[in-house]
Amino acid sequence: MAHPKKRLTTNAAGNFFVDATCINCDTCRQLAPKSFKEEGDYSAVARQPEGDAELLQAYQALLACPVGSIGTEQSDKARLQEAMKSFPLLLEDGVYYNGFNSEKSFGGNSYFIRHPDGNWLVDSPRYVGRLIKAFEEMGGIRTIFLTHEDDVADSARYAEHFGATRIIHRADAAASPGAERIVDGEEPIVVSEPFQIIPVPGHTEGSMALLYDGRFLFSGDHLWWDPERNALGAPERLVWDGERLLTSVAKLRGHPFEWVLPGHGDRIRLTPAEAAAHLDRLLERRRAARP
Ligand code: SF4
């Protein structure tokens, strides 16, 4: 729970504030970009939200913040409830962003896929009543796809509650003891149409992406949208093997997609041609920067 006494001086004056417990995970800036900005090592309120849409986004950010660093001097309980009920947020065609990001994954994003043959959870949000109820109402969770070792968060609790099968790569499996399905090697695997696993070693040895319906690429910490560069980005630090990472980026050229849905970094929808061109530019940039 954010505390007014810890309110950062970088916040715009007014009701919403960020306090000094912020871990700078970017979640609030993705959800409410007009209201929150990065300021040094923290987020801060750039300007107070105005109008229904911005207020809803600001309360969504308050709920999604993994460490409770966003507060209000006076809470609007009706808007808070509206924000609570809005999660998970529908992105498109049965694909949702869950919100309630977990500190255990440093505020990583997680997603839900509603599918008639069984729903999928991609990485894990906090284990909270609102999401458990929403997932139950949509038919539960059959499969939990873990992109890599850093973002397992509360997946074991969701697996137990829903009787779900967790999938993780063997190289990262120590992070998910008891995971029901272990992936080996680097060859893409069609689990069942239209779910395809693409191992993308680089950030970690066991990093994997999930391509759903030939359109939605759940990319973990392997690939994201960088709004400042207006380009796709990939990790430059905290990397297990930089050369393998570039090989894995190049591998995605053979798997057309539209949406990039990462654990960290911004979401984006592109055309397949734009996505391919951005992958090429990313590879050119990174190869040119080699020592
Ligand atoms: S969501 Fe919370 S922890 Fe993350 S940047 Fe915003 S205020 Fe900081």
UniProtKB/TrEMBL annotation:
Classification via InterPro entries: Metallo-B-lactamas, RibonucZ/Hydroxyglut_hydro
SUPFAM superfamilies hit by this protein: Metallo-hydrolase/oxidoreductase
Signal peptide: none
Keyword Hydrolase: yes
Superkingdom to which the source organism belongs: Bacteria
Molecular function, one GO term: hydrolase activity
Zinc-finger recorded as keyword: no
Limits of the Metallo-beta-lactamase domain: 107-264
Keywords on record: Hydrolase
Protein's UniProt name: MBL fold metallo-hydrolase
Taxonomic source organism: Candidatus Manganitrophus noduliformans
